Amino acid sequence: MSQTTEWDLARANYKQLENVKTRSISFNKFELLVQFNPGRITSSAAKVDTKSIEARPCFLCEKNRPEQQQGLPFETGMTILVNPFPIFKKHLTIVADSHTDQRISGNISTMLALARELPEYHIFYNGPQCGASAPDHLHFQAGNKGFLPIEKDFSDGRACSQLRIKTGIEQWQWTGYFRGIITLKSTSDEKLISAFYAFYTRFADAQPERPEPMLNILASYCNGEWIIHIIPRKLHRPSQFFAEGDEKILLSPASVDMGGVIITPREEDFVKISKPDLTDIFSQVTFNDDELLPFIKRIL
Ligand SMILES: [Zn+2]
To answer: Most buried pick, 37, 85, 107, 211, via CB within 10 A?
Structure first.
């Protein structure tokens, strides 16, 4: 898209991304990248309570979008836009044409279709209560492949192994990855959708008070096959987010962080965040290997 050269805001922010600072933190079986990205402060610190959401004009509705932001239609009812606050060198937001709540139920097939349509990208979904800064407007994001560590971590198999295989679909299990993930792999979108809902229904029973169970999802497509990583969540933001002074770390984890790129919009957090901080943050917001067990059985 020419948006990153013609649209002033996007051009400036993609240019700035070239100078973004990154450091890596090594764990036993994997590495995390920490990215200092001041442009993400609006999203990381976004107020997403009902009152704040109702009080603001929705920035994903076409009538409120910047005039210079232009989109491409996707199937019926979605539009592909350049994300003006990038984390990835190529970062898209795919938004519903109508103002409708952020829900994965009924929309997982759209997510898989997007992955197939955009095979150079990971498609990601942040639930309305765990990372979406517009919980009232259905959207996905897409970021170029070759950047999220989970991609390599899945293929090198140090933290991940095949758990079950049934005709046409595989389920993979992660151990010692500090964040519980359910991974499915198949050439059949129907089989993936059916396995997803088997998991979703059970997980929804565990979080009955929520509009939908808390989930981040990453999906990609390559050579006729989809890989989807489902990350169930216990909490939106860790205690460090709300702390004051030295204790504070402004980190609001969502799909990209779950994929292994930790976004810190404040430089002080980028500098000080440590391995124990990250271990603790993951333990607060995601399920550990044992806690995940009840949700991963019999979903194929
Ligand atoms: Zn809207």
So the answer is: 37
Q: By the 8 A CB rule, do 260 and 150 touch? A: yes
Separation between Cα atoms, residue 237 and residue 248, nearest integer Å: 12
Does position 141 have pLDDT exceeding 70, yes or no? yes
pLDDT, residue 297, reads 87
Of 148, 150, 105, 149, nearest in space to 127 by CA? 105
**Total-model pTM:** 0.97
Nearest to 116 by CA among 193, 223, 256: 223
Beta bridge partners of 174: 160
Residues with a beta carbon under 5 angstroms from ion ligand 1: 58, 60-61, 99, 137
Spatial CB neighbours of 20, under 8 Å, sequence gap ≥ 6: 35, 36, 37
If you measure from the C-alpha of residue 102 to the centroid of ligand 1, how many angstroms do you get, rounded to a whole number?
A: 10
